[in-house]
Design goal:
Blueprint lengths: L1 E13 L2 E3 L5 E5 H6 L7 E6 L5 E9 L6 E4 L11 E11 H6 L3 E3 L10
Parallel strand pairs: 1-8, 2-6, 3-5
Antiparallel strand pairs: 1-7, 3-6, 4-5, 4-7
């Protein structure tokens, strides 16, 4: 049996941009992606701590070291610049493997989105 478990989490990052006129996705600083064990094209769930919105999208690479967290396309309507969001990805794995699996959880600086 396979179950879905938390694989990676960027906890409490700040939205730096919302670009309605871009074709969907979330742009994430490549440093943050590496730290959280996330890759371009990966499906992620976004939780907005400011308004309670929850939605899924996929990742595109942002400029390394920029602190960029940009919601693109329709997702841009679910955030405001300055909102604090949690970005999570999940993985399917065997039930027994899931019992000992440890997700990667990253706590960047909330004001700069830089790794601390």
């Amino acid at each position: 049996m396979l179950i879905e478990v938390l694989k990676s989490k960027l906890h409490c990052v700040t939205v730096t941009e919302a670009n309605l006129n871009y074709v969907g996705s979330i742009t994430i600083d490549e440093d943050l992606m590496d730290a959280a064990n996330m890759i371009a094209g990966e499906r992620v769930q976004i939780v907005n701590n400011n308004n309670g919105e929850r939605f899924d999208t996929y990742i595109i690479k942002g400029e390394r070291g920029s602190g960029c967290i940009c919601l693109n396309g329709a997702a841009a309507r679910k955030v405001q610049v300055g909102d604090v969001v949690i970005i999570m990805s999940y993985a399917q794995m065997d039930f027994e493997e899931a019992k000992t699996f440890k997700p990667t959880v990253v706590f960047p600086d909330k004001t700069t989105n830089k790794l601390v």
